Amino acid sequence: MVSKTFTLTNKMGFHMRPAQVFVTAMAKYASEITINFGGKDISGKSIMTIMAACMKCGSEITVTCNGADEEAMLNEAASLIESGFGEE
Amino acid sequence: MLQGIGASQGYGIGKAVIIEDINLDYSAVKYTTAQEEKARLAKAVEAFTVETRAMAEGLKASAGEKEAEILEGHLTMLADPFMLSQMNDKIDGGAVAEAAVDDVCTMFYDMFAGVDDEMMRQRASDVKDIRDSMIRILLGVKSIDIASVPKGTVLIAKDFTPSMTSQINKENVSAIVTEVGGVTSHSAILARAMGIPAALSVINATQIIETGSTLIVDGFKGKVFTQPSEAEIAEYTGKQKAYLDEKEGLMVYFNKPTVTKSGVKKAVYGNIGKAEDAQNVIQNGGEGIGLFRTEFLFMDRDHAPTEEEQFEAYSTVAKAMDGKEVIIRTLDIGGDKAIDYLKIEKEENPFLGFRAIRFCLKNTELYKKQIRALLRAAYFGDIKIMLPLVTSLDEVHAAKALINECAAELESEGLHYRMAPLGVMIETPSAALISDLLAKEAAFFSIGTNDLTGYTMAVDRGNANVSHLYDTFQPAVLRAIEMTIKNAKAAGIPVGMCGEAAADERLIPKLVAWGLDEFSVTPSSILQTRRNICECE
Questions:
Q1: Is the pTM of this model over 0.90?
Q2: Which of B27, B143, B211, B487 has the greatest number of CB atoms lying within 10 Å of its CB?
């Protein structure tokens, strides 16, 4: 199991488009992914729960990956989040 | 005549087609086996995907990429493995496929609808749309064929969902009437994007109006004429033609830069009073917002808006304008405006009294909330702060100090913010007279001609005995404007105008000649103003 903590930097936070980009990327991996935000665990493969969690710019989140390809998964998750999902 | 809200400009004359709600009652559906229900669900998801993808393509062609994104979002949402597994769990628990869809969608609907965020509420209506489509597909009910209504149809429905609007053929639909929704509802945005006149929130429209009857829809005033007379039809046919001719002539200017004949770049902005009006500016081709009057946020309530509420409003506008300039005027109120909770005393001379910047600098607790909200919202776009009713340099210094104080607070609290440039509204003769000095302190000027005319001419425009003196063309007012523009130019700062005069075709050539950079007008006058500027030397 590997995990890393981030602060969301794109202006709109985890809204529709970033959530869409994120879950599409994560679906490739066999490992499980959870996002801990405000004490709650959210599935990183579910766009609905990600959007419902309302993670905004400045929110601190911890991403945990667990499974065979956990390292690669966390790396890709990190690059997406750190690049602000290609948004400002 | 029925009265609703004018949500999309234009006049439509045609025959009514009423879109009835489809019956989505699935109580008669019997549970077979879990395997069978899951297979039905999977088949319905597949059908939904094919149908929605086709609708998204159609919408891309009729209304543009952006509008189609909503439907593409529906596809991703229904493809959510968590959502599907929840539905399958419900089926394992003994629910028919319809009930599984209903329960899971309703759960997400409640989740989204409960969040105090406009974008999340939009997601709630998306989930409802998905639910309705899925249950309709599962029940095998044919959707109403909106796509094939004959030419000259006025569509009437309780409300239009994205999947319904996507089928509208703008060639055949002359107007839209709904029972719910306002200017920012999905139906309104789509109607405007497609250029179809719309009257929304027409109470009981689907019951009062009969299918096949002739209607006139006034999308400006939100009026629907049932059983119009020959004379009314003739009148509105004329209005429609005049409007379309004018619009066609002006549409040429929609994507055109505002440049004079000699090649000088100008900008036409829009004036707004509410966050949602930003859409009107965009729809009319505005290059920014030159005046966001924040008073409306403070009116019709029993306490001042919180910092969060203000942040929400300002950042909504900043995001909507997508990097374009947004000039926000800080609270401009006085004893003449009834905001009871501010407890401003009734004054003998409210226009010369305790108002606008004067009031705000004495009520710093209230003012700082607004400034903090503005600086935080500035993180999301190009927000500029504008001070109303400035008459002295001291006021600008004091406001600057407060802004720096707020920025320091936000910094230490670790909140995202950006320093918003501070400009001065020139609307008093004193400000015009010291505009050379103010130009050294301000990042920009915006000339407020309505008050500048009143204060310069010392006239109350509401007093019939003297109102003839209220005239922006009086040499005194013109000199004040010219002086302000010249002083801004000398100091190298941009200067705009946000009063009614900015849209006055008789004045525009003078303003252009003096060097005014930005003209901020009522959204519906943007294209006309751009045309008038482009025709200047």
A1: no
A2: B487
